[in-house]
Amino acid sequence: MILMTQRPEMSKSFYITERGDYTSITKIVSVKLPVGLIDALDELIQRGYFQNRSDAIREAIRKLLTNYRELDSQKISSGLMIGLR
């Protein structure tokens, strides 16, 4: 069972989601997206790739962060190869 609650000490934009042994704190954010992106996102949801827009956007952000972390690692590695610190 998934239980979403709010704690009085947290603002209304924060939620605590409990799924058995997994608990996460989420915050609501608003973004403006072009209609074409939303339509493409909804198509992926209809095809069953994601349960909803939030799941798809979270996955996209995770991939974006991973790409930048890898890019940073490559910069550090290449700097070490040429003797930079």
From TrEMBL:
It comes from the Archaea. One of its GO terms (biological process) is regulation of DNA-templated transcription. Residues 27-67 form the Ribbon-helix-helix protein CopG domain. InterPro entries: Arc_rbn_hlx_hlx (IPR013321), CopG (IPR002145), Ribbon_hlx_hlx (IPR010985). PANTHER family: BLL4998 PROTEIN. This is Ribbon-helix-helix protein CopG domain-containing protein. The lineage of its organism: Archaea, Thermoproteota, Thermoprotei, Thermofilales, Thermofilaceae.
